[in-house]
Amino acid sequence: MDGRKVDIELVQTFPPLPDPNTIYLKVTTIQKMHLDLTEPRENSMTFESLQDLNVVLLADEAHHINASTRKKGKFYNSHIQAL
Q1: Would you put residue 49 in left (φ > 0), alpha (ψ -120 to 50) or beta?
Q2: What is residue 8's predicted lDDT score, i.e. its pLDDT?
Q3: Distance between CA atoms of 77 and 80, rounded to whole angstroms?
Q4: What is the rounded radius of gyration, in angstroms, for the C-alpha atoms of the chain?
Q5: So what's the pLDDT on residue 14?
Q6: pLDDT for 24-71, tens place per residue?
Q7: Is 74 helix (H, G, I), strand (E, B) or coil?
Q8: Among candidate residues 60, 57, 64, the one with its CA nearest the CA of residue 83
Q9: How many CB atoms lie within 10 A of CB 12?
Q10: What 3-state class would DSSP assign to 20?
Q11: Which residues pair with 24 in a beta bridge?
Q12: Residue 16 backbone phi and psi in degrees, to 5
C-alpha cells in the first residue's frame, strides 16, 4: 500500500498498540461479537479495548447490527452502528 508492505494478521483481540503496517482481522459472527462486547470475559474484545482504535466492521447480515430486542417491555440496543 503506497509502496509499503502491509501484513494481515488474524486475531481474537486487537492489540492495544497496533502496528501501522498491519491490518488486524477478527473473523466472527455478529452474535458472538455482540456477546463478547456485552458480556466481557478475560481475553475477549470489549468496548473499552476498541474505543481508541480505527475499526471497520464488515457484516454479511448487517440487519442484526442495529436491531433492537424487546424483552419484558424493555428495549436492548446494540452499541454497534452500521455505516
Answers
A1: alpha
A2: 94
A3: 9
A4: 15
A5: 87
A6: 998 888 888 888 888 888 878 888 888 888 888 777 765 655 555 444
A7: strand
A8: 57
A9: 11
A10: coil
A11: 9
A12: -65, -30
Residue corresponding to grid cell 442484526:
64
Assigned C-alpha cell, 52: 481508541
The letter for the amino acid at 2 is D
Q: What is the pLDDT of residue 10?
A: 93
72: left (phi over 0), alpha (psi -120 to 50) or beta: left
- Rounded (to 5) percent helix, strand, coil in the chain: 20, 20, 60
Main-chain phi, psi angles of 80, to 5 degrees: -95, 135
Q: Domain ranges for the chain, please list them.
A: 7-77
Which residues lie across from 77 on neighbouring strands?
Answer: 68
